[in-house]
Hints:
The chain has 183 residues and is mostly helical. 56% of the residues lie in helices and 0% in strands.
Amino acid sequence: MFNLSVDLSGSMAAPEVKLNMDTDSAKDATATAFLRKRGYGWLLEVEDDDSEDSKPLLEELDIDLKDIYYKIRCVLMPMPSLGFNRQVVRDNPDFWGPLAVVLLFSMISLYGQFRVVSWIITIWIFGSLTIFLLARVLGGEVAYGQVLGVIGYSLLPLIVIVPVLLVVQSFELLSTVIKFEFG
Length: 183
């Protein structure tokens, strides 16, 4: 029926391969043919650089420094007469600006003790989540990113007032007025 007598004899010796690193194209073609024949042709493939893969880091992380700077100016000087649109913080939320503000606030609030930075960030994230959930339960149409952004940027006046309070703390009446005005 079937012929099962197949010669299975052979040796396990590796073939002799001589690789010269000369720039001769004939030898290069031989090495290329050798690698392709053995199934290692994928080693010779070169990927073309896509425009998406070679984006700058800030663009890759979706960080727009001009937008963040504009939002900071809108929060610190909320005067429409100067051309600052206060609604941009709510209407065009971002993550990196508020995160930078919260990190700066945490560094200033306890003079750079790194162990509290995680607590302040946690309070910012979960406090924003609580406000987001309350707003949604009450029928508000807000996104979590909007709440994170608004609460993050709202810490800016506190960051600005800290150096002023350090300077005027010896004048009790003036520091009390500033605390009532901004606090």
